[in-house]
């Protein structure tokens, strides 16, 4: 599962406390400054996914494994947080960063480089932002582009190549999210909150091609969030790579399990007879 990219912007928040002074019989006001974060989702999120799948045999069972390359592009609109009660002068622009969450951190096969307004940034793992999720967090180094973020659409792009199994899912955080998936797997099962477009979906013995489009009116969350990244796993969608079992394979597995049960039965009788020195006679 991939959840991102999310623009993380720190800002100053203030609280006031009053202390009573017995000598002057007055209250003293003290202002405390706290650093919090706003999390901004992109206006457009386009994802192109190419999946090379194969079947892996594990004993009597088969499972689908794959190598996938996911290319992400899109843009953010100019950032304005005044509707959230945050003044422009309280935003710490030089500490802004981009976050990606994933359920398959160990499967990533190459470095991820973010192109953000034609500048390149690297990602590192970040355990501090795992407060409301069981997903792993990747965070870019600081993006110091105050004037551009406030006044322009900001383009971004990055790619993720990873090994995985069973399924691929995406959380549609773009105000408009589109995903195109192409694979050599002939038995896909489309899962999650949103299904691909039936008019463009193609499935054959050589693989499949599917396209999703999710609008902001199709899901019940906004583009700006304060304090924490919301847990939106229930809105994920994607593809499960099914291993179809025909009648011959079912019969073969049944026969193997039958031989296994018979063999274990004879083994148990043999061990009882050997260890207890009791002769077991079958009449």
Q: Could you give a short description of this structure?
A:
The protein has helices at residues 146-151, 247-276; strands spanning 2-21, 26-40, 44-58, 61-76, 97-102, 113-116, 119-125, 136-140, 154-165, 167-170, 176-183, 188-192, 202-204, 207-215, 224-226, 237-241.
Describe the model.
With 283 residues, the chain is mainly beta. It has 2 domains: 2-241, Sandwich (Immunoglobulin-like), CATH 2.60.40; 247-283. The protein is built from 2 helices and 16 strands. It has helices at residues 146-151, 247-276, and strands at 2-21, 26-40, 44-58, 61-76, 97-102, 113-116, 119-125, 136-140, 154-165, 167-170, 176-183, 188-192, 202-204, 207-215, 224-226, 237-241. The strands form 2 sheets. It has a 13-stranded mixed sheet with strand order 13-14-11-3-4-9-6-7-8-5-1-2-15, with no helix packed on it. The chain has a 3-stranded antiparallel sheet with strand order 10-16-12, with no helix packed on it. Strand 13 and strand 14 (207-215) form a beta hairpin. The radius of gyration is 28 Å and the shape is extended.
């Amino acid at each position: 599962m991939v959840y991102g990219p999310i623009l993380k912007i720190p800002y100053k928040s203030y609280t006031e406390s009053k202390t009573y002074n017995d000598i002057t019989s007055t209250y003293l006001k003290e202002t405390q400054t706290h650093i919090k974060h706003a999390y901004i989702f992109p206006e457009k999120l386009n994802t192109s996914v190419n999946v090379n799948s194969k079947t892996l045999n594990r004993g009597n069972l088969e499972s689908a494994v794959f190598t996938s390359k996911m290319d992400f592009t899109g843009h953010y609109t100019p950032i304005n947080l005044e509707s959230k009660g945050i003044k422009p002068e309280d935003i710490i622009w030089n500490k802004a960063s981009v976050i990606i969450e994933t359920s398959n951190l160990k499967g990533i096969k190459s470095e991820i480089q973010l192109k953000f307004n034609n500048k390149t940034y690297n990602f590192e793992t970040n355990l501090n932002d795992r407060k409301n999720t069981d997903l792993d967090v990747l965070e870019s180094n600081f993006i110091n582009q105050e004037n551009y973020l406030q006044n322009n659409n900001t383009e971004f792009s990055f790619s993720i190549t990873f090994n995985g199994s069973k399924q691929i899912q995406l959380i549609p955080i773009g105000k408009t999210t589109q995903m195109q998936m192409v694979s050599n797997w002939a038995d896909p099962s489309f899962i999650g909150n949103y299904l691909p477009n039936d008019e463009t979906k193609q499935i054959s013995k050589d693989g499949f091609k599917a396209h999703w489009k999710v609008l902001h009116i199709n899901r019940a969350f906004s583009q700006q969030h304060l304090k924490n990244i919301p847990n939106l796993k229930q809105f994920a969608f994607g593809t499960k790579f099914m291993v179809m079992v025909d009648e011959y394979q079912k019969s073969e597995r049944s026969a193997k399990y039958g031989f296994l049960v018979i063999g274990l039965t004879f083994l148990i009788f043999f061990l009882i007879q050997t260890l207890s020195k009791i002769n077991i006679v079958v009449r």
